[in-house]
Amino acid sequence: MFSIYKNKSVKQIFQYGADTLTVGKALAICKGQINGVLNEETRKLVRQSSTVVEKIASSTQAVYGINTGFGPLCTEMISAEDTRKLQENILKSHAVGIGEPVSEEISRLMLILKLQALAQGYSGIQEGTLDRMIWFLENNVIPVVPKQGSVGASGDLAPLSHLFLPLIGLGKVYHQGTIAETADILKIYDLAPISLGAKEGLALINGTQFIAAHAVKVVQKMHNLLAVADITAAMMLEGLLGSAKPFHEKLHNLRPYKGNKHVAANIRHLLKDSEIVPSHANCSRVQDPYSLRCIPQVHGASRNAWLHLKEMLEIEINAVTDNPVIFSEELTISGGNFHGQPMALPLDYACLAASEIGNISDRRIYLSLEGTTPGVPKLLMKETGLNSGFMILQYTSAALASENKGLCFPASADSIPTSLGQEDHVSMGSISGRKALQVIENVEKILGIELFCAAQAMDYHLPLKSGKVINAVHDAVRSKVSHIEEDQIMYNLMQTTIDLVQSGELLEIAQKAQDQMSTEGFNEEFEKY
User: Fold this and answer.
1) Which of 146, 170, 184, 204 would bridge with 165, disulfide CB 3.0–4.6 Å?
2) Of the listed 5, 16, 64, 122, which one is catalytic?
């Protein structure tokens, strides 16, 4: 129910271009758990496509990017002898990214996703170019890619240019924990830069791999986030003596959204065998505030957004997204498969969905401080006045939730024409991906704060216990952070529970506890990626 997909059932060899890539497989290749290779059939297709491109380059037929200039220069014919120089020039001129570099993991994912796209044999790439890309991955020589500069339309031009400068001996790479000049690292391995053939530079930099690599991380991190949100919400339900009725299966069968039903089943499972739930069965409260009562509707809607992103991403990472696409010597198509809109929209949707998890979590944190729950003191501390209790923790969660609202403006709603009007509508999907990760990281912090507050609230109902999973999580929190009844420095305690969320340790603890219990028909679409 809570575990992150570990790819235990997939083979240890992944064949680029021949096998179907998933988010889980991409991450496993990135971590070195699966070895990515090119099989002979794929190599044959790649060689055939490269041969077609070389023939076109030597002909008088004008084909964009092979024997013409780029963008607004698409009517400028390039001689056969200059086609190779043209491909080097495009990498140099388009490497205009700025800002801090993306993580080494994102750069790795970009390489993996680009290999999958190029290996399908529609791009005219040389076999040796793909082999060098695989060499970079296998030897942990990973290109340094700046975060800013892509508008997400004619591919992620700037970041992909930086990603592939090292192929021609330029740019910088991560190597053994440091950033170094590519030329210096190639000398260490006694390797020469490769010589790009016709269209190769264009094939390398046209594509959505910067956007898609961020989307891979969004899918992974949001999967963890959604599971943790259900756990912290269930803990807060217990701490605030919330009703279990809003999670009844019959209720959600009347409005059967996949996400809602899954979350309701999760909460029922987490509350199973709870001693706290029956302890207030005959209380006078008629209904709970929305942040407790509507957990399935809010968390469920965010799960639906995650599922939509995952489904769209699995199409994207198995697609050919460069331009032009080479079908044969007679049929080349200059189209728009590089346009980032199909990923920009679901990434913006996922960004909003993640932010809403933070919004409702902040409301539950606030609710826990009000002192209206029997047995649970105001500000989660018995002696207040002299002590401020947990009051200011909610300031932090409010600040994070507010920051997220600013980040939720959809990047895809904007478009600024580029390339002298040739690229007159762009997706800004690269910004969508980067913002979504920022929002998710903020929500992880909010959930860490909720975990801290929920554990404190639950303490006031001892010796009553919750279900097995919630008890295990509560015990884990208490093994790291003690119950407190007087003011002390809080940021280090908050960071401890935030670390539990961000590291994945909380889900591992929950998984171990839930393995001892039966599940009740959970939707498999939400259980893996």
Assistant:
1) 170
2) 64
